[in-house]
Each structure stands twice: as structure tokens, then as C-alpha cells.
């Protein structure tokens, strides 16, 4: 065994084998030797342990680490949200994996917008990822690998942490679950009257470019033969003249309270009622069978503009008027007739 290790070290030093590949070779050798010894001694418990060590080490060394995009949140709120995420991280360190969902559900009672709560949970997941990768790096160190007790402790800690990560990840999936209801919507008489009123629009933007509506960027991914329908749906919505079936509430989804869509053919324009006759257009996409859930999740993760003061509202309405003109310009310069 010692001579074989030297040969592996030689090929590693010469660059023929990577550190990870050399560890995999050593793992194979050790498994062979230990399996041979335990089989001769008929030590069933040691044999099972040897096999589990052999199988788990490659899982750790070749594990991928998920990257989840953080939603945009108000810069002034980040410090508070990060403080909350650290609090949750510390609480979960002393929590069994079975109790994690109940602990996280308690934090749902905080007065946080969906984006903000998602931001907090993603921060928790990222912290787990950093710790998992640390164990990965420790296992790649040969000095650590050859001390069996250390190796056993690393593997144990890694899988305990991974199990917690998966519980939090499943919780994140659950709170962001989207169900697409194809049934015809039912509006109350009051809602029907409100939808017939003339409306004023504001648009979701980004922190990086707060004067450019997200919908303008979305149009790059919309087939040009749909441009006229996008513009007509919005124009009819402003004037309260949408045809029956063109407006649909998405309130059956947990994250979609107060959110609606304008729809025609494959076009989906997602919007939210803000107050009075003011509505926020979140974005637009062309529906495809394989992108529904992903696109709705993208829409729901976008920020709603701050209109908490008259001054801020006036600014957003000004951007809204500009966006309406830009959409009309896109129709005139790039839109085309046709079918898809």
C-alpha cells in the first residue's frame, strides 16, 4: 500500500493526476485493502462502515454547489435583512432538521415582503453552501484524509449539514410554489366596475437602472409578431376596454396576492394593483409549455416601486408615461404582422 501511495504521489506531483483524482485512487486502494481484511475477519459491521466511507467520499469530492440568484431588495433594508438571516442561521445551528420547517414558519409572521423573505432564506442557503464547501476542501487535504478519525468526523458533519440544507431548500421551494390555474376567473361586481375605470400605470424597474422599466428589456424576448398584442392589451387595460377573459387573477398562488395577468394567445403581462386606480406592470413574457413556472417566478421576484409619498408616486407615474411611449415606439419600429 505504501509503495502504491508513493506512485500516486509521483503522478500527482508531475501533474498527471489532480489532487482530487489522486484522492479517489487512494480511496479505491483503501477500500480494497480494508474490504479484504474485513472479509477475512468476517467483521460485518466494519465491512459496512468501509463501504459507506468508500461511497460517501466521492459524493463529497464531486458535489456541485447550487447558486441561487438573490432577488432585488431596497438597499436601505439590506442591513436589517442580513441581520435577520444571521439570526436564523444561529438558531438553526441548534435545531434538528425535523424542527427546521416549524422554526422558519415562525419567521413568516414578520412583516416582510415576499422578495425580502426570499432574500433572507437565500442568505441562509448560501451560508450552508459555504460551510459544505469548507468540508469539501478539508477532505481534499491529504493530511486530513489519512487520519481516519478526522475523515469520519468530516463526513459525518458534511452530511448533517447537507440534510439541513435540503430541508431549508425544500421549504424555499414550498413558499415559492406556483400553481397555474387555467379555469376562467370569477370577478365580483365591484371588481368588474374597477376594471372598467381609466387606470394609471407604473412599471417595475431595477436598482441598477431605476428609470428603465423591466418590460422594455422583456420585449427583446417576445416574438415581434406579438408586439401589437402587448401594446393593445396594455392600452385597453388603461382605458378599461379589455375583452372578457383577457384579465385573470393569480391569487391562487401564495406569492401572487393582488397579482393579475393580461393574456391573449401566448402573451402574458403580469401586473399588481397598488391603490385606487394605480397599477404596476411587473413584466411580460411569451408563454411556452416549458417556461411557465420559471417565468412566473421571475415576475414575482421583481420589485414593486416605492410610491409611499406623493413625490415618489409622481416620479413613478412619469416613468410610466415614458414607458408607454417606448412601447408604442417599439411597436412602430420593430413590430411586425404574422402568426407564430
Task: Describe the SSE topology.
Blueprint: H1 2-13, H2 19-41, H3 44-61, H4 75-93, H5 100-107, H6 114-140, H7 142-145, H8 148-175, H9 189-196, E1 200-203, H10 214-218, H11 227-239, E2 247-249, E3 259-264, E4 267-275, E5 278-286, H12 292-300, H13 310-334
Parallel strand pairs: 1-5
Antiparallel strand pairs: 2-3, 3-4, 4-5
Instruction: Please report the total strand number as a whole number.
Output: 5
Span from first to last CA? 66 Å
State the shape: elongated
Average pLDDT metric = 81
If strands are numbered along the chain, what order do they take across the biggest sheet?
A: 1-5-4-3-2
Structural class: alpha+beta
| Domains, number | 3
How many H/I helices? 13
CATH-defined topology of the largest domain:
YaeB-like fold
Major pleated sheet: 5 strands, mixed
Helix content: 55-70%
Unreliable stretches (pLDDT < 50, length at least 5) are: none
Spatial extent as radius of gyration: 28 Å
CATH architecture of the largest domain: 2-Layer Sandwich
What is the string of helix and strand elements? HHHHHHHHHEHHEEEEHH
* Overall CATH class of the largest domain: Alpha Beta
CATH superfamily label of the largest domain: RelE-like
Binned strand content: 5-15%
Amino acid at each position: 500500500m505504501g509503495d502504491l501511495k508513493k506512485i500516486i504521489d509521483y503522478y500527482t506531483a508531475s501533474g498527471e493526476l489532480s489532487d482530487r483524482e489522486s484522492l479517489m485512487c487512494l480511496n479505491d486502494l483503501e477500500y480494497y485493502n480494508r474490504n479484504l481484511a474485513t472479509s477475512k475477519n468476517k467483521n460485518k459491521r466494519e465491512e459496512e462502515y468501509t463501504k459507506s466511507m468508500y461511497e460517501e467520499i466521492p459524493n463529497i469530492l464531486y458535489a456541485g454547489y447550487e447558486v441561487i440568484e438573490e432577488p432585488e431588495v431596497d438597499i436601505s433594508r439590506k442591513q436589517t435583512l442580513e441581520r435577520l438571516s444571521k439570526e436564523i442561521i444561529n438558531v438553526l445551528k441548534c435545531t434538528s432538521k425535523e424542527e427546521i420547517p416549524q422554526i422558519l414558519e415562525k419567521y413568516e409572521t414578520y412583516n416582510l415582503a415576499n422578495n425580502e423573505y426570499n432574500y433572507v432564506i437565500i442568505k441562509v442557503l448560501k451560508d450552508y453552501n459555504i460551510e459544505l464547501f469548507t468540508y469539501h476542501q478539508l477532505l481534499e487535504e491529504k493530511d486530513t484524509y489519512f487520519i481516519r478519525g478526522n475523515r469520519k468526523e468530516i463526513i459525518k458533519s458534511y452530511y448533517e449539514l447537507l440534510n439541513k440544507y435540503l430541508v431549508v431548500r425544500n421549504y424555499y421551494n414550498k413558499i415559492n410554489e406556483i400553481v397555474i390555474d387555467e379555469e376562467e376567473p370569477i370577478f365580483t361586481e365591484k371588481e368588474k366596475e374597477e376594471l372598467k375605470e381609466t387606470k394609471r400605470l407604473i412599471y417595475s424597474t431595477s436598482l441598477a437602472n431605476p428609470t428603465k422599466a423591466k418590460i422594455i428589456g422583456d420585449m427583446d424576448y417576445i416574438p415581434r409578431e406579438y408586439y401589437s398584442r402587448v401594446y393593445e392589451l396594455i392600452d385597453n387595460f388603461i382605458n378599461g376596454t379589455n375583452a372578457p377573459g383577457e384579465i385573470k387573477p393569480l391569487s391562487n398562488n401564495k406569492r401572487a396576492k393582488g397579482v393579475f395577468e393580461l393574456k391573449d394567445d401566448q402573451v402574458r403581462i403580469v401586473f399588481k394593483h397598488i391603490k385606487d386606480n394605480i397599477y404596476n406592470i411587473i413584466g411580460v413574457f411569451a408563454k411556452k409549455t416549458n417556461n411557465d413556472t420559471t417565468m412566473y417566478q421571475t415576475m414575482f421576484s421583481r420589485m414593486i416601486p416605492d410610491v409611499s409619498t406623493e413625490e415618489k408616486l409622481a416620479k413613478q407615474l412619469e416613468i410610466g408615461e415614458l414607458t408607454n411611449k417606448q412601447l408604442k415606439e417599439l411597436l412602430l419600429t420593430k413590430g411586425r404582422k404574422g402568426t407564430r
